[in-house]
Amino acid sequence: MTITAKLDRLRSLFQEMDRALIAYSGGIDSTLVAKVAFDVLGDRAVAITAESPSLLPDDLLEAQAQAAAIGIAHEIVQTHELNNPNYAANPTNRCYFCKSELHDTLKPIAIARGYPYVVDGVNADDLRDYRPGIQAAKERGARSPLAELGISKLEVRELSKQLALPWWDKPAQPCLSSRFPYGETITLEKLQRVGRAERYLRQLGYRDLRVRSEGDTARIELPPALIKDFVGAIDLPKLVQDFQELGFLYVCLDLEGLVSGKLNRVLNWPRGAASVATSGVSATAGPQR
C-alpha cells in the first residue's frame, strides 16, 4: 500500500468511526492522528491530553499550540500514575501502569459523551519494540489507526510534511519517567529535577536530547553528530555547576550519543518481534480493569 493510499485509508477509518476521542500527547504520531480526525470529523473529534508530573510543562504548551493550529477541540485532564506504587517502583512493565491510568481516565469520558472509540498514536514501528503500555490500551478497547494500517514512524513524518504540519520533524519526546533505569524508584522530585535539566539544555538550543538519571548522576545524551560541537561550545564547568544546583552530584556526557529506548537494553528484548496486535474494539466493550 502506498503512503497516499494509507492516508486515504486513514481518513476512511475515521469516517467509519463517526466520532473519536484522541489520546493526544502532542507528539508527532498523535498529532497526525488528531489532524486527520479533525479533517474528517470536525467537531465530532476531540483531543485530550493527560497532564502529570512525567510531562514537561513546555511539552504541554506545545501540545496546546499544535491543537490550536489544527483547529481540533482540545482538553486537558489530570492523571495520577505516580500514586500507583506499581508505577512508582519503576518495574520493567512500568508503561503498562501508565497507560492503564491514562485509558482508565479517558474511557469513561468517551463512554459518557458517546464517543465509541479512544484512539491513540501508536504506529507500526512501536509494535516491534518493547511497549507494555500497548497491551494496557488494547485491554481497554483503544484503537491505534496508524498501527492498524502499517504506518511507520518515517511515514508519519512524511505524511505530516505532506499535510504541511510545521512540526513534521519534531523529535520524539517520551515521558520523563523513561529517563530512569528500571528498578529505581520514581518520585516527583526526581521527575522535576530531570525536567529542569532538559529544559536547561533546550534553552541552549538543543532540541533532541535526553538527561538520563541514575541515582545522583545525570548522563546527557545528544545526537552523535552534535557531541563535538557541544563540548566545544558549552561552558562545561558552568553546566556542571548548574546541574549540581538542580540536585545532581555528577554530570557526564554519553559518548555513544542519543539512542531512543537505550535503557531497554537490560531486557534483551528481541527487536523485530511483534509486541501486541491492535484491534478495533469499541470503547463501550471489552474487559474492565
Brief characterization of the structure:
By secondary structure, the chain is α/β, with parallel strands linked by helices. The chain contains 11 helices and 7 strands.
Output the keywords.
disordered C terminus; 3-stranded mixed beta sheet; alpha/beta; 11% strand; 44% helix; 11 helices; 289 residues
Question: Please, could you describe this protein's structure?
Answer:
The strands form 2 sheets. This protein has a 4-stranded parallel β-sheet, with helices on both faces. A 3-stranded mixed β-sheet has the order 5-6-7, with helices on one face. The model is unreliable at 272-289 (pLDDT under 50). The two termini are 36 Å apart. The longest helix is centred in the middle third of the chain and has 20 residues, at 94-113. The protein contains 11 helices and 7 strands. α2 packs parallel to α3 and α5 (94-113) runs parallel beside α6 (132-139). With 289 residues, the protein is α/β, with parallel strands linked by helices. The chain is globular, with a radius of gyration of 19 Å. β1, α2 and β2 (45-51) form a beta-alpha-beta unit. It has helices spanning 3-17, 28-41, 57-70, 85-88, 94-113, 132-139, 145-148, 153-162, 188-203, 224-233, 236-246, and strands at residues 20-23, 45-51, 73-78, 118-119, 210-214, 217-221, 250-253. The chain is 44% helix and 11% strand.
